[in-house]
Specification:
By secondary structure, the protein is mainly α. The chain has 22 helices and no strands.
Length: 427
C-alpha cells in the first residue's frame, strides 16, 4: 500500500503541476495579447504575470478549506476533490473566448478559473505529501516525501513539450488563433488517470489511528495556531526557494530570455525541459540523501549552493549560446531542487499529525503567495534598472538566503512522528 500511495501522490501532483505550468508558459507570451490586449505590451505582460500571482494569493483559502476537511474527514477523499477541481478548471480555460471574441468577458472568466485552480492547489500538495509519508515508517518518510515533488518536473516537462510542439509544428498565427487551447484540453484524460489511482489507495494509517483514538481537533486550524504559530513562519521560509525558484526560472526567465536576451522561445522551453528531465533523477537521489542526513540538512545545502550561483547564472546568460543557456538553466534548476526535494520531509517533521494537513497546506500556501509575485516583482525590478544583468540574481539570492536560515532553524524544531499501525488496515 505504501508504494501505491506514493504513485497516487506522484500522479496527482504531476497533473496539478502540468495544469499550472501550462498556464505559466501560456502567460509568458499569449495571455496578454489574447485577453488583455488594450493594456499594451508591458501592461498586458504584467497583467499576465499578475494572473499567475492571483492563483497563488487565493491558495490560503484552499489550504484552510481542504486542510480542515483533510484533518477531519480524511486525506484520501480530500485529494480526490482537489485534483478534480484543478482538472476541470484547466480544461475550461481551453474554451474561453478571447478579447477579440467577447471583450473583457474572457479575461474575467480567466480570472475566475485561475482562482479555482489556486484553491485546488491550496489543498493538494499537503495531502499528497501526507498520503505518501503517513504510509511509511522511520527514515523512509524522507524518501516518500520526495516522491510527490517529482510532480513538478513531470508537469513542467509535459507542459513544455506541449508548447515546444506547438511552436515548432505551427505558426505563431495558428497558435494565437486556435492551437493555444489544445494543451488545456489534455488535462481531462490526465484527470481521469489521476482519479483512478487515488480511488484505489486507502486512507493513511496515521489518520485512521487519530480517528480510532478520537484525537482529531474540532477546528484543526485553531489548534495549529495555538500550538505552533512560530513553526508556521519557519516552514514558510523553508519553502520559499523551492517554490519561488520555479516561478523565477519557468516563467520570468523564459520571458526575459526571449524579450531581452534574444533567444528563441523554443530554446528556452528545451532548456527548461532538459533541466526537468534531470530532476527526475536528482529528486529521488536527494530524497535518499535526506534519509541519511535529514531533510532539513538537504534543504540547507540546496539553498547554500543556489546562493553561490545566483549571480553567475544571470551574468553568463547575457553572453550565452544555446549550449551555455542549457547549462545555466540546469544549474539554476538542480541546486534549488535539493531544497524542493526535501521540503515535504521537513514539513512533516515540523507539525503534529492532529492538524498536519492544515499546517502543511497553510505554510505552503503562504510561501506560494509570496512566490507567486516573483515574476511580477522581477519584471518590475528589471524595468526600473533597465534590465541590468544582475536584477534576477538579486531575487534568487534573497530567496536562497531566507531558506538557508530557516532550514537551519527547522532542524532543531522536529516533533515526534507517530508510526502507522499496519495490523488493522482498512482498504
Amino acid at each position: 500500500m505504501a508504494t501505491r500511495a506514493r504513485w497516487a501522490s506522484l500522479v496527482g501532483t504531476s497533473l496539478e503541476s502540468y495544469d499550472f505550468y501550462i498556464y505559466a508558459y501560456f502567460a509568458a507570451f499569449f495571455v496578454g495579447p489574447l485577453f488583455f490586449d488594450p493594456l499594451g505590451g508591458f501592461g498586458g505582460t504584467l497583467a499576465a504575470f499578475l494572473s499567475i500571482a492571483l492563483a497563488f494569493v487565493i491558495r490560503p483559502v484552499g489550504a484552510i478549506v481542504f486542510g480542515h476537511i483533510g484533518d477531519r474527514i480524511g486525506r484520501r477523499k480530500t485529494l480526490i476533490a482537489t485534483v478534480t477541481l484543478m482538472g476541470v478548471a484547466t480544461g475550461l480555460i481551453g474554451v474561453l473566448p478571447t478579447y477579440d471574441q467577447a471583450g473583457w468577458v474572457g479575461g474575467a472568466l480567466l480570472v475566475l478559473l485561475r482562482l479555482l485552480q489556486g484553491i485546488s492547489l491550496g489543498g493538494e500538495w499537503g495531502g499528497a505529501v501526507l498520503v505518501a509519508t503517513e504510509h511509511e515508517t522511520g527514515a523512509r518518510r524522507a524518501f516518500a516525501a520526495a516522491m510527490p515533488q517529482l510532480g513538478s518536473p513531470i508537469g513542467s516537462i509535459l507542459s513544455a513539450t506541449a508548447f515546444i510542439w506547438l511552436t515548432m509544428a505551427l505558426t505563431n498565427e495558428e497558435i494565437v488563433a486556435w492551437a493555444w487551447r489544445i494543451p488545456f484540453w489534455t488535462a481531462i484524460p490526465l484527470l481521469l488517470v489521476s482519479l483512478w489511482l487515488r480511488v484505489m489507495v486507502s486512507e493513511t494509517p496515521v489518520f485512521e489511528k487519530l480517528v480510532e483514538k478520537e484525537r482529531r481537533p474540532r477546528i484543526p486550524l485553531i489548534a495549529l495556531l495555538k500550538a505552533q504559530p512560530a513553526t508556521i513562519l519557519v516552514a514558510v521560509a523553508v519553502a520559499l526557494l523551492g517554490i519561488g525558484s520555479y516561478s523565477l526560472m519557468n516563467t520570468y526567465t523564459i520571458n526575459y530570455g526571449v524579450v531581452v536576451l534574444g533567444f528563441e522561445y523554443y530554446q528556452l522551453l528545451i532548456a527548461t525541459t532538459i533541466g526537468g528531465l534531470l530532476q527526475l533523477i536528482t529528486i529521488p537521489l536527494f530524497g535518499a540523501w535526506a534519509m541519511r542526513i535529514g531533510s532539513s540538512a538537504v534543504v540547507a545545502w540546496g539553498a547554500l549552493g543556489t546562493l553561490l550561483v545566483a549571480f553567475p547564472i544571470y551574468y553568463y546568460l547575457q553572453f550565452a549560446n544555446f549550449g551555455v543557456l542549457v547549462g545555466m538553466m540546469v544549474i539554476g534548476g538542480i541546486l534549488p531542487t535539493m531544497s524542493w526535494a526535501a521540503l515535504g520531509g521537513v514539513f512533516t517533521e515540523l507539525f503534529d499529525e492532529r492538524y498536519r494537513y492544515s499546517a502543511l497546506g497553510i505554510a505552503y500556501a503562504i510561501a506560494a503567495v509570496i512566490s507567486g509575485f516573483v515574476p511580477a516583482l522581477t519584471l518590475t525590478i528589471g524595468e526600473a534598472t533597465g534590465n541590468v544583468w544582475w536584477h534576477p540574481g538579486v531575487v534568487l539570492a534573497a530567496l536562497s538566503l531566507i531558506t538557508l536560515i530557516a532550514a537551519l532553524m527547522a532542524g532543531r524544531m522536529r516533533v515526534h512522528m507517530a508510526e502507522p499501525n499496519y495490523r488493522r488496515p482498512r482498504y
